[in-house]
């Protein structure tokens, strides 16, 4: 009898664990389930099962009283495993429901943010106000865009990125097409593999200098578009680009602005423009698409425009250091 006491104690401890687990709130149970490691007794290969298998194989050599005790132990163990199976199934169902609900919430959020944008090809200009754009670049309202980079394919899967502080390291004090460097060395490989996996790559970037530098707008336009052209050439992958040139009413020098520009992040206008007019009417798979940006509202971030942009659209969001 003494020989089975440790095994019995092990099972008692496991029953106690299960009781604690079952009496926890659902959110805690999901946490416990995710963080449990074998041998938390949620699989038949756990250490308790190994001990019971040992008891089974040695049953014939036990005394009668020990054999009765082993029988009880095995019966209890089977019931225990049955209960664990049911509980595991229940938790898996709860997890599936939670994931489905998250996805539904993202889609609902996206449908709430939809604004119809009237655009026709004749609306696309080759100048932004008094500044001339480089070839292939066009302007529509307060947006400058590169719609058709060579080799670009529209897709249901959108890999979207901010530019400054995400893909390119830039300095507000420096101007010019060459005044930038790659933010992370892994960027070219990552972007190329996304392209090869059928994603369309899109950059959504704010550039209020183009609006604010009224007397040197051409310099601001050439600098921004030049950097983007050079970046695309460097990473050797086609990218669609949208630059929001408008201002927000909250900016320090824009006291006279009454309304936020609808295309400036965190407003979702650039995304809606892409989705409604520059993706060949292909509906976007919001579960596979995502957005990466550095303005995530953290202590050292200059703003939360990127994370709010992703939330307004219903896109998954990553900060660059996590993604790259
Ligand atoms: Mg940024």
Automatic annotation (TrEMBL):
One GO molecular-function entry: double-stranded DNA binding
Keyword Lipid metabolism among record annotations: no
Residues covered by the PARP-type domain: 50-74
Keyword tags: Metal-binding, Zinc
Gene3D superfamilies: HAD superfamily/HAD-like (3.40.50.1000)
One example of a Gene Ontology biological process annotation: DNA repair
Organism superkingdom: Eukaryota
Pfam families: PNK3P (PF08645)
Name this polypeptide is given: PARP-type domain-containing protein
Organism of this sequence: Lupinus luteus (European yellow lupine)
Phylogenetic classification of the source organism: Eukaryota, Viridiplantae, Streptophyta, Embryophyta, Tracheophyta
């Amino acid at each position: 009898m003494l020989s089975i006491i440790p095994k019995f104690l092990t099972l008692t401890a496991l029953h106690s664990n299960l009781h604690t687990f079952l009496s926890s709130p659902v959110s805690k149970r999901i946490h416990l389930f995710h963080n449990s490691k074998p041998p938390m007794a949620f699989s038949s290969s756990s250490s308790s099962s190994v001990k019971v298998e040992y008891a089974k194989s040695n049953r014939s050599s036990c005394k009668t009283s020990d054999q009765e005790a082993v029988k009880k132990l095995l019966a209890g163990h089977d019931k225990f495993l049955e209960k664990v199976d049911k509980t595991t199934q229940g938790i898996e169902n709860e997890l599936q429901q939670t994931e489905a609900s998250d996805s539904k919430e993202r889609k609902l959020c996206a449908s709430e943010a939809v604004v119809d944008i009237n655009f026709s090809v004749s609306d696309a200009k080759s100048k932004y106000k008094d500044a001339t754009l480089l070839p292939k670049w066009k302007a529509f309202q307060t947006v400058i865009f590169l719609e058709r980079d060579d080799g670009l394919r529209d897709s249901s899967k959108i890999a979207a990125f901010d530019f400054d502080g995400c893909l390119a390291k830039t300095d507000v004090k420096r101007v010019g097409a060459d005044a930038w460097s790659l933010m992370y060395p892994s960027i070219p490989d990552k972007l190329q593999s996304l392209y090869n996996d059928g994603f369309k790559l899109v950059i959504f970037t704010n550039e209020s200098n183009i609006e604010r530098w009224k007397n040197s707008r051409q310099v601001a336009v050439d600098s921004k578009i030049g950097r983007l052209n050079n970046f695309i050439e460097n990473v050797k992958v086609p990218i669609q680009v949208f630059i929001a040139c408008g201002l927000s009413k909250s900016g320090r020098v824009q006291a006279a602005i009454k309304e936020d520009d609808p295309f400036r992040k965190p407003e979702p206008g650039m995304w809606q423009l892409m989705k409604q007019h520059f993706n060949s009417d292909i509906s976007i798979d919001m579960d596979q698409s995502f957005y990466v940006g550095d303005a995530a509202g953290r202590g050292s971030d200059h703003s939360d425009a990127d994370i709010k942009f992703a939330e307004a659209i219903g896109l998954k969001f990553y900060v660059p250091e996590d993604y790259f």
